[in-house]
Amino acid sequence: MQDPMVERIQSNPRYQQLKATRTRFGWRLTILMLIVYYGYIGLIAFDKELLATPIGSGVTTLGIPIGIAVIVFTILITGFYVRRANQEFDALTRGILKDATQ
Fold first, then answer.
1. Would you say 3 and 90 are in contact if contact means Cβ atoms under 8 Å apart?
2. pLDDT by residue (tens digit) across 79-101?
3. What 8-state DSSP symbol labels residue 54?
4. 43 within 8 A of 66, measured Cβ to Cβ
5. Where along the chain do its domains lie?
């Protein structure tokens, strides 16, 4: 036996829209992150010489800024998801809950 509130929410077209949009968006960001992360791991595995290339006259190699870029990219897409979730997804959720309680 299912709760009537749950049934009202699940039958709401805006809930279906929210679910589809959020899922699609999440998969896109996941794929981007996998490409960046496994691309970096692939460089480590298959092109060590490129990553070992010194930058300037110091001891820092090209692998360090690329690794930092992977970390920064992760932070940026997390922030991008949070921003969109707080603006768009939360507004849709509030509307769905408002419709379900009426």
1. no
2. 999 999 999 999 999 988 888 88
3. B
4. yes
5. 13-101
